[in-house]
Amino acid sequence: MASDRFFSNTYEESRAGFRDQLKEIEKYWPNARLETYHIGSEEEDNTTDILAADALEEKRDLLIITTGEHGVEGFTGSAVLQLFIEEYLPVINPETTGMRLVHAVNPWGMRHFRRVTENNVDLNRNYIKDWDKVTGTVNEEFARQKDAFVPSEPVGDLHTQKEKLSFRLKESYTTEELAKLKDTPSGQYRFETGIFYGGNDYDEPAEKLKNRYLNWVKGYDHPVHMDIHSGGGPKDELSLIFTEADSRSENTLREELSYDHVMKAPEVDGDSNLFLQKAVQVEYPDKKALVCLFEFGTIGESLDDLIFCTRTMINENQLYFKGAAKKEDREEIQRDFARLFYPRKKEWQEQVIEKGRKGINAILTSEKIQLHSVPGTAGTLPDT
Questions:
Q1: What is the 3-state secondary structure (H, E, C) of the chain?
Q2: What is the extent of the structural domain holding 162?
Q3: Into how many domains does the chain fold?
Q4: How far apart are CA 8 and CA 271, in angstroms?
Q5: Can you give the pTM of this predicted structure?
Q6: Which of 178, 179, 203 has its CA nearest to residue 189?
Q7: Is residue 127 part of a domain?
Q8: Edge-to-edge strands of the sheet including 33-38?
Q9: Residue 190 and residue 259: Cα distance in Å, rounded?
Q10: How far apart are CA 351 and CA 230, in angstroms?
């Protein structure tokens, strides 16, 4: 299957394949380089790897692709990086375009097949401008079911636990609230072993990325950032999600991108894309900066599907911190978690590549990135 060359089974395999692509980039950007930094101790060998290249003549456009902010989602992100390297490098104009391709913002999470960091931090709720305002806070949705969201004992009988959790979630939340828990949950900043934990300071992966980000964009007129995720949005669709820092409406974005599955994300404390886009706008107000989150959907939108998502987050977190009595229950929880964030079905992986191509085309075309041709189409773009 075509997807086999894009998707990996382990963090180490994915990283090795990514690092090997330096020689491919050097064909077009002789100044290309591999930049690596460790998260945690060097002995643990969890690294964020960046393939960096700068425009050869005029620093006009900078393409940034980040992956693995939610560790387990890095496998889908790595596939998109491979797609980009194979199909887009040969048609991008290196004279005016630079790039930063980032593999595994959260390498510990990717290695251990968890969404969060080693400190149980959801990095997409960790980009806080004023920590004094959020530290110790808990949102209403979390407080309502805190004893379920913060594990206190090992998983007993999983079948029974699933039934009880499904009933509790159905009784405690509206369908709209469950959809929010699936797609845009608020962070909580009190319970370190609970789900949706945003931390009490910048976690190391967030600190190291944000400190580099403004340096990347400062020399370019037009930074374009694509951040790759999986698990949210409609099943088997790619949603392109823009921040509130983008002044355009959803309808305008759909028209300009010629793409249907577009949305504006609600403003949520700690959102990384909103934080980074606003940081560029404040520091460099003359730059035209775009940030877009790619969300590859895995689960449907029915009530049962919405319950499955939050229930799986609860069970996986409980398994990590407290364990489970039975091996078969551990394996089932891990299968549910993979279904939610990294489905192994070839059909799903194939459509990631197909829809990823359409999403990248939509962004690059609407942002007028100079290309020799458009991958996956018979069309070409005019010079800009």
A1: CHHHHCCCCCHHHHHHHHHCCHHHHHCCCCCCEEEEEECCCHHHCCEEEEEEECCCCCCCEEEEEEECCCHHHHHHHHHHHHHHHHHCHHHECCCCEEEEEEECCCHHHHHCCCCCCCCCCCHHHCECCCHHHHCCCCCHHHHHCHHHHCCCCCECCHHHHHHHHHHHHHHHCCHHHHHHHHHCCCCECCCCCCCCECCCCCCHHHHHHHHHHHHHHCCCCEEEEEEEEECCCCCCCEEEEECCCCCCCHHHHHHHHCCCCEEECCCCCECHHHHHHHHHHHHCCCCCCEEEEEEECCCCCCHHHHHHHHHHHHHHHHHHHHCECCHHHHHHHHHHHHHHHCCCCHHHHHHHHHHHHHHHHHHHHHCCCCECCCCCCCCCCCCC
A2: 133-200+300-341
A3: 2
A4: 28
A5: 0.96
A6: 203
A7: no
A8: 33-38, 47-53, 97-103, 61-67, 222-230, 290-296, 238-242, 262-264
A9: 39
A10: 13
Does residue 372 surpass a pLDDT of 90?
no
Q: Residue 378 has what pLDDT?
A: 52
11, 92: one domain: yes
- Specify whether 45 is located in the same domain as 106: yes
- Least Cα distance to 39 among 113, 105, 100 occurs for 105
Pair (182, 207) in one structural domain:
no
Whether the CB-CB separation of 330 and 164 falls below 8 Å is answered with no
- Residue in the structure block whose two tokens are 């999983």: 158
Residues in the chain: 384
Question: What whole-number distance in Å separates Cα of residue 253 and Cα of residue 260?
Answer: 9
Q: Which two tokens stand for residue 207?
A: 């600190």
pLDDT tens per residue, range 355-365 = 999 999 999 99
Residues 6+ apart with CB under 8 A from 23: none
List 33's β-bridge partners, or say none. 52
The answer to the question of residue 50 being in a domain is yes
d(C-alpha 29, C-alpha 81), whole Å? 17
**Token pair in block for residue 382:** 């005019």
pLDDT tens digits for range 184-213: 999 999 999 999 999 999 999 999 999 999
Q: Which residue has the tokens 């990294």?
A: 342
